[in-house]
Design brief:
The protein is built from 5 helices and 16 strands. It has 229 residues and is of the alpha/beta class. The chain has a 6-stranded antiparallel β-sheet, with helices on one face. A 5-stranded parallel β-sheet has the order 2-1-3-4-5, sandwiched between helices. The longest helix has 22 residues. The two termini are 34 Å apart.
Amino acid sequence: MYIAIIADNIATRKHMERLLNRTSDAIMSQTGNLYIEAYGDPKSMWPLIKRYDLFFLDITQDEELRDSLIQRFTELDLTSQTVICQAQDTDFSYWPAEHGFLSVQHPLSVPILSGIIQEIHNTISQNQASKKIIEFRSEDKTEYIEAEQVLYARENEHLVEVHLLDDSVVRMLGNLFDFARLVENYEEFEMYGKEVVVNKNYVTKTEGRKITLSNHQTIKLSLFKKHLF
């Protein structure tokens, strides 16, 4: 699991890093290794947001920053993966649960953090078991992508560019036929012209060499020879 700490107090940030590293040692047999990365300023975290399974927010010095982070995590639908850390007996303590966030009060400890992380790990495992997950290796890590998030995949030189619903692109090591084998048991995927694998659920029209998707994007084929796998 990848865990991000966002804390504006450097002493708190370092303390949480130490606690989470000890927690990783304590529960490794249940969850695997925990990869902990800490931020004082979240700006550098946003481009990497998809990396993380769990977030700890501990903002005590900048109320505006705290409120903007809470709003951003709500917009990203990450409330159930976000733990808001609070001072003991704070008036803010009731608020997180009402809005879908997890919360914990200081002082933190390895047993407290272990319980939270194991709960999140179990939820992730259950969700992966119930969803169609495509697992492949990108240039720097293993990716786990929900099948329903994939629009199409197309080979580009020595990589496969996997285009997602949110307009992002994840690059897979290998060729298009490697990707096709990964999704061959998912009936929503088809290969067209031996050059693109498309999620049929998002195809609105095929005409000649052109495939139109529900987001109005078009895919142009060099040859229109449909190959089912």
